[in-house]
Design brief:
mainly alpha; Histone, subunit A; 2 strands; 38% helix
Length: 95
Amino acid sequence: MSITRQEIEHIAKLSRLALSNDEKVLFTSQMEAILKYVETLKELDTDAITPTSHAVPMENAFRPDSVTPSIGHERALLNAPDKNETYFRVPPVIE
């Protein structure tokens, strides 16, 4: 499979990239090399390989939900730079 200069220009346009003529020539040859390598990978016999979604075995990293007591207003506001009773005070962002 080969890639044309017009396809490189189209990809650059979609990517909103302004490429010089030298870059177009360079990227055309680089993309052809990449596609050629992918074609060689297609020649490998992968029938006995189980498809995976990750390169290494993965498990759910989430902990189970459990109800625990909260830390309370006093402790939550302990290091607050500005507070009002049980609330954080922040400067206005809309005037």
